[in-house]
Amino acid sequence: xxxxxxxxxxxxxxxxxxxxxxxxxxxLVSVDFRKGTRNSLLRLLVDKPGGGIALSDLEKxxxxxxxxxxxxxxxxxxxxLEVASPxxxxxxxxxxxxxxxxxxxxxxxxxRARDGQKSFVGTLVSVGQSGIxxxxxxxxxxxxxxxxxxxxxxxxxxxxKDK
Length: 163
What we know:
Layout: H1 8-23, E1 27-34, E2 40-47, H2 55-72, E3 79-84, H3 95-100, E4 105-114, E5 117-127, E6 131-136, E7 142-146, E8 150-155
Parallel strand pairs: 2-3
Antiparallel strand pairs: 1-2, 4-5, 4-8, 5-6, 6-7
């Protein structure tokens, strides 16, 4: 179940491709669609549950997903398809993504500014059906942010804790 709303084209791509990706033992973490004047970008972030995805996995998946997109044709106009791993600061899109990083550092962006602030970084304190609570590092306040208010969210790897 998606907590964050995606671009309508990205939502369509998730509906079409997620079952195929899961059937092959992978997870579709996020779909990002950026409409361009001449060429749009469709970025699929795919992971392998419990182990991280290898370049060989992505190379194997890419043509299959490209063929499925050609058949379903959910994207208007010309576009570039990019299939990548979510990386260290993985996007959070589903409720279970947020649940998995409770107590960790996250970065959220909101559609509208709140006290002049649209970006929040801090510890994810709690996750509910409609949103989250975060100890924000900038305002030094506990913020309650609804999923419907968020334009994006990522896990923020804290490099300082390795020292």
